[in-house]
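Researcher: Hi, I'm a grad student and pretty new to this. My advisor asked me to get structures for two proteins we've been looking at. I'm not sure of the right format, so I'll just paste the first sequence and hope you can take it from there.
Model: That works fine. Here's the first sequence with its structure tokens right after it:
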Amino acid sequence: MKKRLSPEVKEKLLEALKTGVEKGYSYYMIWKILRKNGVEISKSTVEHYYYKNFPEKLKKRGPYLPRELRIKLYDEVKKLRGEGLGYRKIKKKIEELYNISLSLSTISRWCRNTRSPYNGRRIPSIEFLEPSPELAYVIGVVAGDGWAFKKRNGRHIVGARVKDEDFIEEFSRCLGKVLNRDPPKPRQEKDGRLVVSAESKTLYEILQKPIDIDKITSFVEHCKECMRGFLRGFFDSEGCVRKDGSIYCFNADIQLLQYVKRILGLLGIRTTGPKIYTKKETLLFNERMGKTYLRKKDVYRIYIRMRDLLKFHQLVGFTIQRKQKRLEEYLRKRGLL
């Protein structure tokens, strides 16, 4: 059986509700104010009287404004607050500028940093991604042997699993820079490989496989440094260097390899291929796993022309030192370094 409110508490509650609703407060905010003023009352009781006395508050909330627009409004609210404007003046100014009415409670939460449209997404949308060599490197790595997938719980993850510490450190650094956060810490798996991953729906949207070339073009081809970053990430991930100095890379996505070849060409680095390397339904033995498996797709390969190995070294190179060292040893033997 519910405990009845005393006349004094009920009077204070109704007065607080009337004042709070006029100011645009939610029942939760009114409950907090009552508790702060020494009125012992449950949150559910305040909620009950809130909707009982103001049933219009029960009407179904309309759809959210697009995140990009909410972020513009948020930034504008924070700017106006920084200029010393009160909540009501901010509300009026937003209506004048955007013809959108924000509730006083929303403005209050934004100004007090208890809510933000940035929450849950460090990069709100693809439109907010800024081209950079670090982003291009992340694109190259994930386009190669990395991953971008959506979990059952709705989280979007991008990451990579490698065996070279210098490689994973660079990938972690670039991922942290892109997401404006500390570099995610690598973790080591039982087989000794290192894994780095981070949550980002925006990166997932441009890096889910098969890679949509149109989505990455503006970030990769933004400038020469971005093209170099993309290629270095891709060759760190998928590239191999033989003892004879030859450089090649594999991938099952022939369109992606054709795009890699085009970017190499823009830097003046000539290639051969893509040519088929392994046909689908071929049986392959994985020495590390000790298992035989059936290739599900055709795998293609491109080569860097031997005459352009020095140019590749100068313009792209490898983050992975064992690959870089092997390339440099070959170039020294040829008297090119």
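Researcher: Oh nice, that was easy. Here's the second one.
Model: And its structure:
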Amino acid sequence: MSDEMVLMNGEELSGEQAEFGRMLDQSKDATNVPKTGDTVIGTVLSASKAEVRLDISGMFIGVVRARELYGEAAEYANLKPGDEVEATVIEEENENGEIELSFRFAGQEKAWQGLKNAFENRAVIKVKIMDANRGGLLANYAQISGFLPVSQLAPDNYPRVAGGDKIKILEKLKSFVGAEFEVKVMNFDEKGEKIIFSEKDAWNERQKDVIAKYQIGTRVSGKITAVTDFGVFVSFGDNLEGLIHISELAWQRIDDPSELFKVGQAIEAEVINVDGAKIFLSAKKLMKDPWDGVEEKYKVGQLVKVTVLKVNPFGLFVKLDDDIHGLAHISQLGLAAGKKIDEVYQPGKVAELEIISIEPKEHRLGLASVKDSNDGADKEEKKEEENEEKEEKEEKAEEVKSERTEKKTEKKTKTAKPKPKKKE
């Protein structure tokens, strides 16, 4: 056997073969063989729905199969030969002598890092709505689940349901399943795996420059998008929405906005407050105040026929005309002892009352029953008479006291004896 012949696995090898073996061994020693849990970068050799094969450092073949394939992220969903991609080693050698890899673990690590960056930088990200419950939406960022509360939905998606019907609200929320929302990360807890998203914050970010155009006093035209117990929502301008509170809908009292306003109805209003992304509007600001000059129409002491609008334990809300409403407090209604207010007055009925006070600036008008008003006047008159009688009695008592004092003084003067003179 020549010096160039060596043994390998019990077989004789030529000098060239031996040299190649030594180079291969050195190459393996110099190469860090991927271990379980390592993240590696590979070049796609082939990709299908069943598996993806990767070339790793020109030395190893890796394969990603079945559940370890991850297709939700664009990075893994549309792979083609030549693409570079990260994967996690889950088995150092499978039955075919290849490295078993996973996109799922590598993708999850990237997703958590992406969420952390979004939270720290207040960046806008996209999430996919997976399910809904009464509290809000279950949303996924890549493989990571988070929660989007109802209160954090953007105005366009907030479920405004008349009467707050919980079943209809849930139906509205479930209609978002499968949709993608732009959100910000409100709460980030990787250890507890608790993520809270906010679509409203992302919406505010997009709309802040637009909202800045609307100052207090700006007049807007729009359409009603929702009618609630507490007011109406109005869409206007560049995809903005504002609230007209029930107290700002009209000068007169409104108990149920749905009786006067409908979804889709055109309406004009004035901006009265801007709080972040919340815009508050007033419709009555653009209407003439019916209380201006009300003293020319109604006078204190005037008897008026009114329509009872509402009966409360503390009194009556009544309508004098379409614009002017007033209050008759229960203490001014002259109810007999044991008589209940709703036994005497009912909504929709007409009653005759007397105006006892008018306050135009406060938009208040007080009324009383005619009987109670007269009783009040009689009581005042009787009180004045009693006061006069009291004053007369006090004056007479003072005169008697004065006369007695004078008589006592006079008597003392008459009975007093002269002092004897001193002898010299």
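Researcher: Is there anything I should tell my advisor about the second?
Model: You could mention this: The domain at 294-373 is CATH 2.40.50.140 (OB fold (Dihydrolipoamide Acetyltransferase, E2P)).
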